[in-house]
Q: What sequence folds into this?
């Protein structure tokens, strides 16, 4: 049973045995619906909401989502959802993030339910979410800032339309609420009673098998991408497992309330999986009694090392040896004989307590967002009778078990930190910054207390022995003097340290695996001299001998607490007590590998470090009885932020009886990761430190099975060599005689001082523990007990008390808040105790109460029901902590005085238990006298409202300093003098509290006398401000009619009677001008006497509030017409009959003003008798729901005009005839309210008889379908004007004449509704007789086709202005004269409608006589063809401005002078229209005489061709700026000096125009003398070649900005200092131009001296797979990868870095040397994993041969590229046969991108991005790859094969080229190397010899074509595309088709650019595509699979997801024989 189901069953059992708790009702759900601001999801079977953008992103698991989507099928997702068939019938996990309250196939079509959703910040919603979370997670410190509420109301399951039993009436209602703040998220699922009626749904593709799939409830993170090419399943959590567990959802819950389920779903820093709530909170496990080491008072030396206890150290019996022991040959090391006194391990205090600190709940990792968990209350806190002497009346013995003192959770005032101390962010903590937090004037981000972690909020994360410091970006913890550590964990200086933990894992010795299961590890470190002793007990014998060389297990503790030499620090000061160490040991010569993972889990209650160790791998076998010796050695540690690493090689000797002495070695590589604090920039750690291990001793005691290590450790800067004993201070050599509990302080020379550690006392050579408890030095407060510890003490609260939030103060436990007493008893809380007393009529001890005999039972009262429901509503039948329990008197009535036992607040209540206003008192104040009758309550004054509206206390109850609170007198009026308590300012105010000008005084000065009359002018009163603020005159000075102007008396006060001058209404007002209720009179009636004193005013009723809330007057004082105002009787209650003054509708209401169903009457109808008692209410019918659901009144009470409201009869059924009140249309409906076809009548027409039975219904005709498809009303029910609706006759056929109601046009139509030519008439002309028989219809002529093909009306029926419509005569032929109706141009046309040259006339000019016969037509000249080819009009017929049109003379020749009408430029041309050099003139200069005879023309020179070939004018004739134009002399030769007009660069050229090396000068520099003869030319150097290839100008001569051009000296060698002219960066290079490492300097800084010798650069290596992959992905990201996008990290040698991360995040994992992820290393935490680099020497294993393995028995196979392999996916017809898919070819180290197939030779071709090659292989078993091209390729991608011409074509996306070659690689040539930016896909159509390719240039993407020989290049598509990745050819329609990753569309177009259509509008992320048999198959980067799309249905038909989830690239189709039209 899954966890959620088991929890549900447990809760159900508890509910059944302890109490009965009712399920939540629908009214208990969170508010939802339109009135709550919800959006409504569209009806349908598979709908997804529009994106719901969140004001602040939410953490789901550990990922951040800023938008959500709500879907029909009972889920919420963080990304747009795929089609439902891809997930709705599958279980967890899903491929995308999901919150699933009820994942099933739901269908809301046809009004079957609604789905609401919203994001809200409403306090009531947030408060309720907080309460639910605190109930389910009592320790959570969670205050939600936002909530997302999604509600599925009465939704139904999908049912097949063909099922005969009709739709089911089972519907479900449920709700999901996501509450979150900046760090955490929680989700509530609510299932009301009766809300679930179906629990499973039938799959759509069940093939008539009667099966149903249970709904899924839970969460799924979705797939997680890593290494960009791979994906893996993310974590998920399922709360249900079968249909029964779904049924339990509303019957049980995990919060103690049936139907309410709560889950912790996300955290900012670390989150593994979903955490469900548990009733009453999580169980708390008490700490154990003894895991810590307890050593003798002295340290055991090596001579008695075997006496070191393996499991237990007695802290009260510590002894220390004096010196190192002596063994033969070595005076320092002497192993003793076996033996000694070994005591048994101390058992935990409780049999249920964990046996190791690792299992103690206090040592679990806690997310940073959690507050410290101080004493979480146990889930089942039980209390004993505090007075055991009391007995019941029957002598029952009471419980005598003494209540035990509460176990402490914190060491107070000493150094142990919080056990549950949260983990801090290691500097990588992300501070969220809102846009409002950024100062755009200064560019500085302003941190606020809301987004910055400060000491004020997080100081409790520091150790008790640390202080907290704030920095600019956050806070850091620092240990106090006398302590050391990282601030989160601090230990006393000089005190010895103990370590305990467990060792687990499997170690293979030789070939024998040995399992270690939680065996004990203990260590003891003498910090004063660096000695570290480690003992591992119960080690099995084989592995015990073999692990002797593994001293690195104990070396960790030596590094943490090493003896520090100057300028160094031990590891604990950096890591604290929480870290992870990963080490890898490789033994030589056997290459055995052992992994060591040691995890520091914090400090336990005794301040001992807890470290768990996991061992796994192989170790060499050592003979039993062997001795291992290891020489002293040194190791260098390298430190980085949050990680320390080291690598070393150790040698050791093994002496055995069998083999004598042998030497071995091992290599150790280790990473230690930890959390550091980067906010303190001053805190620096040395980059390297050296640890010296002077003595290493290892042994295994066979008899005791104990493995021991002893090591002496010193840490120092690298290179520090130990001096002789006489030269080193004893503190540093460890030769001092200080006590082991003392610190050695070095002084000058050999002098030193011993100082006892914190918590110890003595002279330093002899120290003893200070008993802080006995000496009164403890910091324990009242009600706490002090317990002494070695070097410290601990405080624990006495019985009846618990620690408060600060972890120090003991506060009373309010036991009564948990209702420990019997339900018939009263609980009395006291300090440290409580009493239970049975109520009157009951006897017992209060824990059990029984009713006395003779008591008559009466029914329980409301108070008793209220009380008992709360007392039994919590966990196990007891109330939740802190809940208020009402108190009832002996008669069951509410006591008039009620008090809250937890808060101490008291208040008075009425007989219904409702609080009486103004009676609440605070704790410690005298309660209100509740039996005293109330004074008539007067309403609050303006001052009192002002005063009470100021928030003086925070939500947590803390006072808010600095708020100004108004001061009121006894009558509630403002005191005339007001003062601000915080600032000391004082001022005078008027009666409205407005400050009187000039009266403010600063602090310390005498305040103004506010009672002295103001001289001379008094400020305006409120009435005068009101009166003067009314606008009575318009801005033009005209009077404004109808405005209400208040009337004021001489003193400026409101006259008590106010009247409206326009309407005649009058009313009384109070002194603030507020209308007094009930005083308004209408015109002509006697006004009220406003001076008569009011009766004591009662509070306004609900009706009066409703009535007064309606705005009847605008802010400017104008009356608001049409608002509905509620009518109230004299007592303020709703009048039972309510009428709307504007509409005339009337209806009955209940006492709450709610309309009573069926009582509404229309204007003029007799109103309902509202006083007649109601019949028993029946449920609302469909009609009534429909009617009541129409919004006829706005939220402000105004009527909404134009909405259609259904009419229902007395039984709630639809009246058969329905009419629209606004439009006047009427129609008949069936019993479901659906309009009956053909019954609609227009206004004033006789209505249909709807009661006459229908004729047998015939199918709708085409006309009726056409009419019904026209949308005449908006979704809100308003009519749409201007829409053309076809008219049909009674038989459903088109009426012969159709008219447009809005425009008045009429026309005749045929039987298909098509307009008959020539029949359209305008509104003012005679209509055509459409019934006259037609002449036999002739086929349409070309002119008529042309005319009818012009779109003159939009799809909505509106006319389109400006389109040219050809004119045809009666025979359908073009009229000889054509005119454009909009532009006025006219021209003559021939019989094909083509314009006759020279006949066009402008507007108002006389037209040509088009009927005069033409001269014999001559062929068009070149000029006329040129002119006609210019497009002067858009395809819609609009003129195009700015286009240059050539001018031809009457003979069709170019006029000698040509001019551009728009720009005014003119020039001379020759007979071919070519511009003559030097003849162009600007608009304001004299034109050249073009008719002057030319000199005999010579052919153009190379320079002139170059110059004229530069495009200086765009295709439209506009000048192009920035192009370089060569300069030629009079003879057409290159001028020797060329200059670029835009950049100012100059250079010398030779006679071919080629730049002469070394002659280029920058702008402003003197140019070279280009006429000086050159020295004999030497060959170009590498630098000059690179400079020339740097492409500073493209082919057309435009400069490329930002490119780096290498600088060469006069000899062509690289200048040693290179600088980038755009960025300003400079760096040094070697002789080959390679940058020297570490020499780059940014702009503005001093460059390096490159002539100074530097380190020798490593030998240049060829670009590696990692580097090529990195380059490819950066290009894919557009050159700018995002902060969270993955880019491979490569080492300097090109290999993969061992740690790979997503961008700047800490989402990281380890990889091997080939870049493959190491399983189990992925980290979601802020700490990067400790990864080991590639080991050396590597184990050499032969890779499998790259042999081809074709799939058997397949005719059609899809081939796809996936990373380092080519896969084969057979097709079964057109279906993907995934079961038979297999790997065709494995290519290690490759990145296969492009694929192509040669059907004639059955060979596959591919491009390899890694190897930069093009290859092929035969698809035959055992065939091997063949390299075809391996030179001059940079980034080969798309590939195509022309099987007819035996050619292949490919694109290279780095140099932006398209090349071709023969299929064997010969005959290579470049087809295109210009006007390409990002070429990707390429195909060849063999049948036509045409190439097509895509260019996803992000600025101007396009698809182009050319012939296979590189001719006829043209653009096919350039509009409406984004990232055209995939390209294929549809041979059936002869169309080119592409899939676009930018627009997400699959489209096709004809080769000429016509007939473009969309096949599929919403793909995911396509990469490559092929076409076969009416289907497109494409590889998808979002799904990481192959997707099939049907061309005709445009539906996704199938998909294939390979087992290995990574990106798929190219795809090709392989066939046994060539397909027709293949490409």
A:
């Amino acid at each position: 049973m899954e966890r959620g189901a088991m929890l549900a069953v447990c809760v159900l059992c508890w509910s059944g045995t302890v109490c009965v708790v009712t399920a939540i009702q629908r009214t208990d759900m969170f508010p939802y619906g339109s009135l709550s601001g919800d959006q409504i999801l569209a009806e349908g079977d598979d709908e997804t909401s529009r994106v719901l953008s969140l004001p602040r992103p939410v953490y789901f698991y550990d990922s951040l989502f800023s938008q959500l989507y709500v879907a029909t099928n009972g889920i919420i997702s963080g990304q747009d959802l795929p089609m439902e068939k891809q997930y709705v019938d599958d279980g967890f996990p899903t491929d995308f993030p999901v919150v699933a309250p009820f994942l099933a196939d739901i269908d809301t079509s046809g009004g079957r339910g609604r789905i609401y959703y919203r994001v809200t910040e409403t306090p009531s919603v947030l408060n309720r979410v907080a309460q639910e979370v605190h109930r389910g997670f009592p320790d959570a410190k969670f205050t939600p800032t936002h909530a997302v509420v999604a509600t599925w109301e009465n939704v139904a399951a999908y049912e097949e339309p063909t099922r005969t039993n009709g739709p089911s009436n089972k519907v479900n209602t449920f709700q999901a609420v996501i509450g979150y703040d900046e760090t955490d998220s929680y989700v509530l699922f609510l299932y009301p009673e009766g809300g679930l009626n179906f629990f499973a749904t039938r799959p759509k593709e069940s093939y008539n098998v009667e099966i149903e799939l249970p709904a899924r409830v839970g969460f799924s993170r979705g797939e997680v991408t890593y290494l960009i090419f791979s994906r893996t399943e993310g974590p998920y959590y399922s709360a249900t497992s079968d249909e029964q567990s779904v049924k339990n959802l509303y019957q049980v819950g995990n919060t103690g309330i049936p139907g309410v389920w709560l889950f912790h779903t996300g955290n900012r820093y670390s989150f593994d999986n979903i955490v469900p709530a548990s009733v009453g909170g999580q169980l708390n496990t008490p700490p154990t009694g003894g895991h810590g080491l307890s050593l003798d008072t002295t340290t055991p030396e090596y001579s008695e090392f075997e006496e070191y206890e393996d499991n237990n150290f007695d802290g009260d019996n510590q002894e220390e040896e004096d010196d190192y022991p002596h063994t033969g040959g070595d005076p320092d090391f002497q192993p003793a004989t076996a033996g000694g006194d070994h005591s048994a391990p101390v058992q935990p205090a409780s049999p249920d307590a964990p046996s190791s600190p690792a299992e103690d709940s206090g040592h679990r990792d806690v997310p940073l967002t959690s507050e410290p968990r101080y004493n979480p209350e146990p889930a089942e806190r039980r209390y004993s009778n505090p007075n055991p002497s009391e007995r019941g009346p029957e002598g029952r013995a009471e419980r005598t078990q003494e209540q035990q003192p509460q176990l402490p959770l914190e060491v107070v005032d000493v150094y142990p930190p919080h056990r549950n101390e949260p983990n801090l962010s290691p500097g990588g903590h992300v501070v969220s910054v809102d846009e409002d937090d950024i100062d755009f004037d200064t560019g500085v981000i302003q941190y606020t207390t809301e987004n910055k972690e400060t000491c004020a909020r997080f100081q409790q994360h520091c150790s008790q022995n640390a202080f907290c410091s704030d920095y600019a970006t956050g806070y850091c913890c620092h240990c106090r003097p006398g302590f050391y550590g990282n601030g989160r964990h601090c230990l006393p200086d000089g005190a010895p340290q103990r370590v305990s933990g467990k060792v687990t894992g499997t170690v293979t010795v030789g070939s024998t695996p040995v399992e270690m299961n939680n065996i004990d590890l203990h260590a003891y470190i003498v910090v004063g001299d660096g000695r570290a002793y480690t003992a591992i007990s119960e080690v099995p014998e084989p592995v015990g001998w073999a692990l002797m060389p593994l001293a690195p297990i104990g070396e960790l503790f030596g590094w943490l607490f090493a003896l520090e030499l100057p300028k160094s620090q031990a590891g604990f000061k950096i890591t604290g007590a929480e870290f992870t160490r990963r080490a890898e040991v490789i033994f030589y010569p056997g290459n055995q590998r052992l992994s060591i993972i040691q995890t520091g889990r914090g400090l336990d209650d005794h301040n001992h470090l807890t470290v768990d160790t996991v061992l796994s791998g192989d170790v060499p076998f050592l003979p039993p009885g062997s001795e291992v010796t290891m020489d002293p050695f040194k190791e260098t540690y390298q430190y980085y932020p949050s990680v320390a690493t080291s690598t070393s090689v150790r040698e050791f000797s093994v002496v055995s009886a069998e083999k004598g002495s042998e030497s071995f070695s091992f290599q150790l590589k280790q990473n230690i990761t930890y959390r550091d604090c980067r906010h303190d920039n001053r805190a620096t750690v040395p980059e390297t430190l050296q640890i010296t291990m002077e003595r290493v001793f290892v042994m295994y005691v066979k008899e005791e099975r104990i493995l021991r290590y002893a090591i002496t450790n010193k840490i120092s800067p690298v290179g520090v060599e130990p001096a002789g004993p006489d030269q080193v201070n004893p503190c540093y050599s460890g030769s001092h005689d200080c006590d082991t509990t003392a610190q050695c302080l070095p002084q000058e020379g050999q002098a030193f001082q011993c100082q006892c550690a914190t918590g110890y006392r003595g002279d330093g050579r002899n120290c003893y523990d200070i008993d802080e408890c006995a000496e009164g030095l403890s910091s324990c407060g009242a009600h706490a007990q002090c317990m002494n510890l070695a070097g410290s003490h601990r405080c624990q609260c006495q019985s009846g008390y618990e620690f408060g939030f600060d972890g120090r103060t003991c506060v009373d436990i309010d036991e009564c808040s948990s209702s420990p007493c019997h339900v018939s008893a009263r609980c009395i809380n006291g300090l440290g105790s409580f009493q239970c007393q049975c109520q009157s009529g009951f006897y017992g001890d209060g824990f059990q109460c029984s009713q006395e005999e003779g008591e008559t039972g009466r029914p329980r009262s409301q108070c008793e029901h209220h009380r008992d429901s709360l007392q039994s509503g919590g966990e196990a039948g007891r109330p939740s902590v802190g809940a208020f329990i009402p108190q009832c008197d002996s008669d069951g009535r509410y006591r008039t005085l009620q008090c809250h036992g937890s808060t101490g607040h008291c208040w008075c209540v009425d007989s219904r238990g409702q609080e009486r206003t103004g009676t609440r008192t605070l704790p410690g104040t005298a309660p209100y006298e509740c039996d005293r009758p109330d004074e008539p309550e007067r309403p609050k004054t303006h001052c009192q409202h002002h005063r009470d509206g100021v928030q003086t206390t925070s939500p947590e109850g803390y006072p808010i300093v600095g708020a100004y609170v108004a001061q009121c007198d006894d009558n509630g009026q403002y005191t005339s003098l007001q003062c601000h308590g915080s600032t000391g300012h004082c001022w005078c105010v008027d009666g409205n509290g407005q400050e009187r000008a000039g009266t403010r005084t600063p602090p310390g000065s005498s305040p103004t006398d506010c009672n002295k009359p103001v001289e001379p002018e008094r400020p305006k009163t409120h009435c005068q401000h009101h009166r003067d603020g009314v606008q009575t005159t318009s801005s033009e000075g005209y009077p404004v009619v109808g405005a209400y102007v208040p009337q004021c008396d001489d003193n400026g006060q409101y006259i008590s009677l106010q009247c409206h001058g326009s309407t005649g209404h009058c009313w009384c007002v109070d002194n603030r001008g507020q209308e007094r209720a009930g005083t308004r009179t209408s015109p002509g009636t006697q006004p009220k006497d406003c001076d008569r004193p009011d009766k004591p005013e009662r509070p306004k009723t609900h009706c009066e509030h409703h009535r007064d809330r309606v705005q009847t007057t605008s802010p400017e004082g104008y009356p608001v017409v049409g608002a509905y105002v509620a009518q109230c009787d004299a007592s303020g209650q709703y009048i039972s009959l309510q009428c709307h003054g504007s509409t005339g509708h009337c209806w009955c209401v209940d006492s709450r003003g709610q309309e009573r169903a069926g009582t509404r009457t229309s204007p003029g109808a007799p109103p309902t008798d509202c006083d007649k008692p109601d019949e028993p209410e029946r449920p609302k019918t469909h009609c009534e729901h429909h009617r009541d659901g129409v919004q006829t009144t706005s939220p402000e009470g105004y009527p909404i005009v134009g909405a259609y409201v259904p009419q229902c009869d007395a039984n709630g059924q639809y009246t058969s005839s329905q009419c629209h009140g606004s439009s006047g249309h009427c129609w008949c409906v069936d019993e479901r309210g659906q309009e009956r076809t053909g019954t609609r009548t227009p206004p004033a027409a006789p209505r249909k008889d709807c009661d006459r039975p229908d004729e047998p219904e015939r199918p709708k005709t085409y006309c009726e379908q056409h009419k019904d498809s026209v949308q005449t009303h908006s979704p809100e029910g308003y009519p749409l004007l201007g829409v053309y609706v076809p008219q049909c006759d009674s038989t459903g056929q088109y009426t012969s004449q159709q008219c447009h109601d809005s425009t008045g046009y009429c026309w005749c139509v045929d039987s298909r509704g098509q307009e008959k030519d020539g029949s359209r008439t305008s509104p003012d002309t005679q209509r055509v007789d459409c019934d006259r028989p037609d002449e036999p219809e002739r086929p349409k002529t070309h002119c008529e086709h042309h005319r009818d093909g012009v779109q003159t009306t939009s799809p909505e029926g509106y006319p389109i202005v400006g389109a040219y419509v050809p004119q045809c005569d009666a025979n359908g032929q073009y009229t000889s004269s054509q005119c454009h109706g909009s532009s006025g141009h006219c021209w003559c046309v021939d019989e094909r409608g083509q314009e006759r040259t020279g006949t066009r006339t402008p507007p108002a000019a006389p037209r040509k006589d088009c009927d005069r016969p033409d001269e014999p037509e001559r062929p068009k000249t070149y000029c006329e063809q040129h002119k006609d080819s210019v497009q002067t009009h858009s395809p819609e017929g609009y003129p195009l401005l700015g286009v240059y049109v050539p001018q031809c003379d009457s003979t069709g020749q170019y006029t000698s002078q040509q001019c551009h009408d728009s720009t005014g430029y003119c020039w001379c041309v020759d007979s071919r229209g070519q511009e003559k050099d030097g003849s162009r003139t600007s608009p304001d200069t004299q034109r050249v005489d073009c008719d002057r005879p030319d000199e005999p023309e010579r052919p153009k020179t190379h320079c002139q061709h170059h110059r004229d070939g530069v495009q200086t004018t765009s295709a439209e004739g506009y000048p192009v700026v920035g192009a370089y134009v060569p300069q030629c002399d009079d003879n057409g030769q290159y001028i020797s000096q060329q200059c670029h007009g835009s950049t100012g660069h100059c250079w010398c050229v030779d006679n071919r125009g080629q730049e002469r090396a070394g002659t280029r000068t920058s702008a402003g520099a003197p140019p070279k003398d280009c006429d000086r003869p050159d020295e004999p030319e030497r060959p170009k150097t590498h630098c000059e070649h690179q400079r020339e290839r740097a492409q500073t100008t493209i082919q057309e001569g435009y400069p490329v900005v930002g490119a780096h051009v290498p600088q060469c000296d006069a000899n062509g060698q690289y200048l040693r200092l290179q600088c980038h002219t755009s960025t300003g960066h400079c760096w040094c290079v070697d002789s080959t131009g390679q940058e020297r490492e570490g020499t780059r300097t940014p702009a503005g800084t001093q460059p390096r001296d490159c002539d100074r010798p530097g380190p020798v650069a490593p030998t240049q290596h060829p670009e590696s797979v990692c580097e090529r992959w990195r380059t490819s992905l950066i290009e894919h990201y557009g050159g700018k990868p995002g902060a969270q996008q993955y880019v491979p990290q490569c080492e300097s040698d090109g290999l993969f870095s061992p740690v790979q991360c997503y961008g700047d995040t800490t989402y990281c994992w380890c990889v091997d040397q080939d870049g493959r992820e190491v399983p189990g290393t992925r980290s979601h935490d802020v700490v990067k994993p400790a990864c080991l680099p590639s080991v050396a020497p590597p184990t050499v294993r032969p890779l499998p041969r790259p042999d081809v393995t074709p799939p058997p028995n397949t005719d059609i196979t899809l081939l796809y590229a996936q990373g380092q392999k080519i896969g084969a996916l057979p097709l079964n017809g057109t279906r993907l046969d995934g079961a038979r898919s297999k790997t065709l070819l494995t290519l290690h180290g490759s990145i296969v991108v492009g694929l192509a197939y040669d059907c004639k030779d059955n060979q596959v071709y591919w491009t390899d991005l890694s190897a930069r090659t093009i290859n092929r292989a035969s698809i035959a078993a055992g065939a091997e790859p063949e390299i075809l091209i391996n030179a001059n390729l940079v980034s080969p991608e798309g590939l195509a094969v022309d099987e007819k011409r035996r050619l292949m074509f490919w694109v290279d996306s780095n140099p932006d080229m398209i090349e071709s070659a023969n299929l064997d690689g010969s005959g290579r040539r470049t087809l295109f190397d210009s006007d390409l930016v990002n070429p990707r896909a390429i195909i060849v159509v063999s049948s036509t010899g045409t190439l097509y390719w895509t260019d996803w240039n992000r600025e101007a993407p396009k698809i182009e074509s050319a012939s296979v020989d590189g001719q006829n290049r043209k653009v096919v598509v350039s509009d409406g595309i984004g990232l055209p990745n995939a390209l294929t050819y549809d041979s059936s329609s002869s169309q080119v088709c592409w899939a676009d990753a930018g627009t997400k569309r699959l489209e096709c177009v004809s080769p000429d650019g016509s007939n473009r259509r969309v096949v599929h509008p919403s793909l995911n992320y396509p990469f490559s595509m092929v076409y076969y048999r009416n289907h497109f198959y494409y590889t998808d980067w979002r799904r990481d699979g192959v997707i099939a799309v049907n061309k005709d249905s445009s539906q996704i038909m199938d998909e294939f997801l390979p087992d290995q989830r990574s990106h798929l690239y190219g795809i090709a189709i392989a066939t046994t024989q060539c397909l027709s039209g293949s490409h």
